[in-house]
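A.,

Following up on our hallway conversation. Structure tokens first:
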């Protein structure tokens, strides 16, 4: 009966999967214009909740708009840049790059069919973004065939004091796929790439919008306050959470900020001298501490040896005394045995002084003789 019920509900389950698949948009390559094959391209991304910025009145108008992204490989094809800023691989993973993009009112048809417009006069927005590279990015690793992909999702934008979060579910994200040019099994740091594919994809369940309030709070108890345990540590790059020293609130950023302040106030030379002096003092204290610990250990060792020697001497003396007591006990036992033997046999092995000889009795006088007085 249970199997029959499962068979009855199976079509409903399949229908729900099909409906969910239809609702999710398939990757699209509309709004992508190649400037140079496998090396440079323009990408137009619709931003549903970002109003069109009026540069003259400095206000946002309720009109459709899009952002323009220029992805270009460097001259040696080793670094992928977004609008001139390196984004793969990162120059400094501790301080994620600040990204910018131009806003346009061009429709998709105008972007695809018209000549490339001059976007330098368009509003330039600062971006909050999510950056995901599913493959490892550590330059010291080596892969048989390294084909990294970059998922770039725009989380927020700001201009002239205006800030907007972009949580719309119908907003797409950009996926770029790179292929290595060198032979296989080449270290990542030596690889050059080509742009193999660019597509726009639906956010879906694996790329849900994350607001800054949802993210874990950063405190000085953490060295980096990372979003993930491995390199490059940060996925959600909100400008309010980072500055030129790193993740705001982290211990690493605090140390780097203090160090930069010292250099700014005293100069590199004086800071170097002060650091050397402090380093010498610290090393001296550490060395003195190690010396004191070593001396104390020596003293404890000598005391331990003295205790062992005293204990050994006590054991030897105690053994001698025990032997003497055993000998005395043996003598006592021999004497007692001799006395017991004498009592039983009337003789003893031990010598005793002889009794005095008996005195003979006086001779009585004969008859007729007078006694002499």
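Then the amino acids I'd put at each of the 373 positions:
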């Amino acid at each position: 009966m249970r199997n029959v019920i499962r068979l009855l509900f199976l079509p409903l389950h399949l229908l729900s999967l099909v409906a969910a698949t239809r609702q999710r948009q398939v990757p699209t390559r509309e709004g992508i214009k190649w400037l140079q094959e496998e090396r440079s391209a323009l990408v137009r991304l619709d931003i549903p909740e970002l109003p069109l910025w009026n540069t003259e009145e400095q206000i946002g108008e309720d009109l459709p708009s899009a952002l323009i992204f220029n992805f270009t490989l460097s001259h040696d094809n080793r670094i992928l840049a977004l609008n001139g800023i390196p984004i793969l691989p990162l120059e400094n993973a501790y301080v994620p790059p600040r990204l910018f993009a131009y806003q346009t009112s061009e429709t998709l048809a105008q972007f695809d069919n018209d000549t490339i417009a001059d976007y330098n006069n368009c509003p330039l927005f600062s971006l909050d973004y999510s950056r995901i590279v599913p493959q490892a990015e550590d330059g010291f690793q080596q892969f048989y065939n390294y084909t990294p992909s970059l998922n770039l999702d725009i989380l927020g934008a700001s201009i002239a004091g205006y800030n907007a979060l972009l949580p719309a579910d119908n907003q797409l994200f950009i996926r770029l796929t790179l292929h290595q040019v060198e032979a296989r099994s080449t270290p990542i740091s030596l690889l050059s790439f080509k742009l193999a594919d660019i597509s726009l994809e639906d956010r879906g369940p694996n790329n849900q919008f994350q607001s800054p309030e949802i993210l874990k709070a950063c405190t000085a108890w953490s060295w980096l306050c990372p979003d993930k345990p491995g390199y490059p540590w940060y996925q959600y790059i909100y400008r309010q959470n980072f500055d030129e020293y790193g993740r705001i609130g982290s211990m690493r950023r605090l140390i780097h900020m203090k160090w930069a302040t010292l250099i700014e106030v005293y100069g590199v030379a004086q800071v170097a001298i002060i650091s050397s002096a402090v380093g010498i003092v610290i090393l001296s204290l550490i060395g003195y501490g190690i010396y004191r610990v070593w001396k104390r250990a020596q003293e404890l060792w000598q005391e331990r040896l003295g205790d062992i020697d005293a204990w050994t001497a006590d054991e030897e003396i105690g053994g001698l005394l025990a032997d003497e007591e055993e000998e005395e006990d043996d003598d006592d036992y021999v004497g007692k045995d001799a006395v017991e033997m004498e009592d039983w046999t009337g003789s003893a092995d031990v010598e005793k002084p002889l009794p005095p000889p008996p005195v003979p009795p006086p001779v009585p006088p004969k008859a007729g003789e007078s006694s002499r007085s």
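The longest strand covers residues 149-159. Curious whether your intuition agrees with the design.

B.
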